[in-house]
């Protein structure tokens, strides 16, 4: 099935084209479709709406909703439709069915049934830069920002902000584990909140692999500086290393916590210690922007060198030769039929796991 014109309806320079499928490897993993969104357009967020059977795609020029059965666009959003800012870095769906769009310098825009509301710091939002959403067990919403994290009560519409409790105020990743504890991936390490107490971990505690390639250390450049808002993770045009910088975090059903770092690969926490997986183990790249787990328990990692599939024993990597538009994979999502969607600069690809 070809998804031609997937993103054509976005009003700002998006033009989709169906791509060819690559040959499947012995695991059956292959790219089955690809969709261009423009040479200088980034796909930064993907979110599946199971109730509606749709996929939300957040890009640097707007957002759109795709019907997963027909592969046709249902809604497209830019500033003209109600977004406060077209650069969408995060998408969430709360327990009331509201769609949340976290933007770059435009706050958080909420949408439902054709109605919009945008939240700024004057409404209680911690910051204008929004990078992640996570529902909690009570139906409320956590919001990761560049100035701490918000807890939003969907019934009262009230925000509560946490900053000093975190290891670092620049929050990228959010996830809730099976016990209801919330995990935060920040520019300074990982923090956890169990409802009463906070705890944090850094590279000194085992988070992030070692710098075996002797890359130049990055104190904090690229994403996460208010004077720079580019997407580079390089220093002077070369790869760099900052293992405390956590782009993504995932709480697995078995209780393990996975954290994607800048240069230190992906780290797994069993409650006592961290175990690190890098390119030496089979990971495609040591910068890990995104993590998901499919219904079979297989992990998928979006890295700076492509997509990695890990079933607990073996690794399978996909890059440009296998059909990706770009090696930097910023967003991943798994649909109810088991397909994996991956967002990069220039476009989106759909991967058939088997």
- Backbone structural class: mainly beta
CATH class type of the domain at 164-338: Mainly Beta
Full CATH superfamily name of the domain at 164-338: YVTN repeat-like/Quinoprotein amine dehydrogenase
Report helical residue fraction: under 10%
CATH topology label of the domain at 164-338: Methylamine Dehydrogenase, Chain H
What this model shows, in words?
This protein has 354 residues and is mostly beta strands. It has a domain at 164-338: YVTN repeat-like/Quinoprotein amine dehydrogenase (Methylamine Dehydrogenase, Chain H). It is 0% helix and 46% strand. It has strands spanning 30-36, 43-49, 54-59, 62-67, 72-77, 88-93, 99-103, 108-112, 115-119, 130-135, 141-145, 148-152, 159-162, 171-176, 182-186, 189-193, 198-201, 216-217, 234-235, 238-251, 257-262, 266-269, 274-277, 288-293, 299-303, 306-310, 315-318, 329-334, 340-344, 347-352. Strands 18, 19, 20, 21, 22 and 23 form a six-stranded mixed β-sheet that branches. The chain has a four-stranded antiparallel β-sheet with strand order 1-30-29-28, with no helix packed on it. A hairpin with a 5-residue loop joins strand 28 and strand 29.
